Amino acid sequence: MKLHAFVAMPFGQKKGPDGTDIDFNAIYENLLKPAIEAAGLEAFRADEEQAAGDIKTDMFQELLIADLVVADLTLDNPNVWYELGVRHALRSRGTVLIQGPRSTQPFDIYTDRKLNYSLQNGLPDPATLNNERTALTDMVKATLGSWHDRKISPVYQLLPNLQEPQWQNLRVGAAKQFWETHDAWVRQMELARKRGDIGGLLVLADEAPVIAFRAQAYLKAGIALRKAECFDFALEQLEKALAVEPDRLLGLQEKGVCLQRLALLGKPGHSLDRARNHYRQILETHPNDAETWALLGRIDKDAWVESWQHLNTIELRRDEAAYQEALLGQAITSYNQAFRRNPGHYYSGINALTLIYLSHDLHISPPYDEHIESMAGAVRFGAACEADPQQLYWSQATLGDLQVLIGTTDTVIRAYKDAIVHAEQDWFALNSSLTQLRLLASLGFKPETVKVGIETFERALARLQKPESKWQPRNVFLFSGHMLDAPDRTTPRFPAAKETIAAQKIAEALDKLGANSDDLALTQGACGGDILFAEACLQRGVKLKLLQPFEEPAFIQKSVLPGGEIWRERYFKIKPLAQIKAAPVELGEPPKNVNPYERCNLWLLYTALAYGIDKVQFICLWNGEGGDAPGGTAHMYQEVNEKTGQVVWLDTRKLW
């Protein structure tokens, strides 16, 4: 969805400074609106709101939320000055000033950069109109491109410590239509998140009515992708969110997690040093944030474990673990800093304490050794004070971990039993604790207490059935191709007589890629290329998912029946073997300026990418030309090429 620009200017005919009538509607229609749209934004004036309501209310909401405000200062119009003042008072950036001919300049902003345009008889001057459109387009792009550079508002320039209000607080209660649209969008976002539809989340993020909402949506999508272990695609979404809100702490922390995981996976361009530096930069502005300190500690702890975990004997593991004492010391320091800054952050406390005890066991002198007794008491108190019912298992498990370090076999068993009661049969939580204990056992640490801890969790897990792992495809085949030509099509593109050739080439492409039951196929299901692809995939055991721009009856009418009744029969043979979803049902109706076919292309692409960028193979049956309407194969090809180069192009100009 396009960004939103609100234009503050006089309406209709007004007397200019020299007494000439100026047609501001013509200026808007011929200069401002085309220039703004050429920059990729949607232009809006308060008088364009036709729904019943208070124009002043709608205008006020736009001034607060719009991505950009363009203010025309040709006249000393009190409404425009007031609107500009409101924008400057509440938003530090995102304002462009323009003006026509005038003999004097407003004193308070006479030094501000403005675009001057020419008039002829009260209308945009034809001799300069094209150049001025281009200049305004460039100015709009430059303003948006330098969003986080110098503040534009003189209010925020003169009061550098003044903080902008969060956009969530800029809700004008009477602007019902705006916020009803927003609330409906939020509901769809939450539904997509709950059902795990990451592709849908990303489509909805693109459709956010203004960029401020989009940042929150990209953050949610990034977190969902990180949890799905699609770290590269998650990082892309998090960086989109941070481009809008660069100081958003949660976004910065999530980015760090992705950087760390990509480094551990050995992805080119990623290293643990890069992740460390990222967290250190966060700590420059948030030095007392316990979570960031803990994440920094996690990097060094994981790197330390990685250095010895693969070795075959306890002796070799202990020797290497001791040799890597620098990493161990850095991890202890970071966890200790986190716990000191927030004694309620008992996760950091127990990590620091465990690593200190491990250091002693490995005959290393750890940092903060002198605080070991007081830290144990602080961890016990912090965990015992946990008030969040959702965290009770972890607080009680922490008390069990503490007993492993300082208690007896009996106190360990008792503490872990108390924790297991609060686990609510969460297999993953119990297994996480068991994994940590097995890690300690692999170093021969505290063998008696660790052993009974392991036995306690193994006994609890034996009563539970391990949840089935979510199926993950080996490859994801994404397809887009021409529909079969209608009988009355003047310029042939995919004639019915060429169906056999197309089917053969699609089958060959799938065989070359080794398509089998470990793979997933995504397409819409239209007559022609889509159905040929779907049939070929099903013949090879590939799981099939059809994502469609309309509800099924409308989709069949628009995209299946144009090929004839035989294609409807073929579609219904596919249907029982495929998972079919419709965008209006899953994502809600598209916004008014969003093409449903382009929307569906993005839904298909984002869904594919959510399984992992490296897994996506795009197959297209295409003549290399633009489509008859938006949202065709040309659009999909362009979008895919921006994400991955793994494309199999079946060029119909060479096939027939």
CATH topology of the domain at 476-655: Rossmann fold
From the spread of the alpha carbons, the general shape counts as: flat
Q: Which CATH architecture of the domain at 476-655? A: 3-Layer(aba) Sandwich
**Residue windows where pLDDT falls under 50 for at least 5 positions:** none
Which structural class best describes the helix and strand composition?
Answer: alpha/beta
Q: What is the strand tally?
A: 15
Major beta sheet summary: 6 strands, parallel
Q: Name the quaternary structure.
A: single chain
The fraction of residues assigned to DSSP E strands is 5-15%
Note the total helix count: 28
Terminus-to-terminus distance = 38 Å
Q: How much is the radius of gyration in Å?
A: 31 Å
Roughly how much helix do the residues carry, as a percent range?
Answer: 40-55%
CATH top level assignment of the domain at 476-655? Alpha Beta
Could you describe the 3D structure shown?
With 656 residues, the protein is of the alpha/beta class. Among the domains are: 3-162, Rossmann fold; 176-286, Tetratricopeptide repeat domain (Serine Threonine Protein Phosphatase 5, Tetratricopeptide repeat), CATH 1.25.40; 476-655, Rossmann fold, CATH 3.40.50.450. It contains 28 helices and 15 strands. The strands form four sheets. The chain has a six-stranded parallel sheet with strand order 13-12-11-10-14-15, with helices on both faces. A five-stranded parallel sheet has the order 4-1-5-6-7, sandwiched between helices. Strand 11, helix 22 (529-539) and strand 12 (543-548) form a beta-alpha-beta unit. The mean pLDDT is 91.
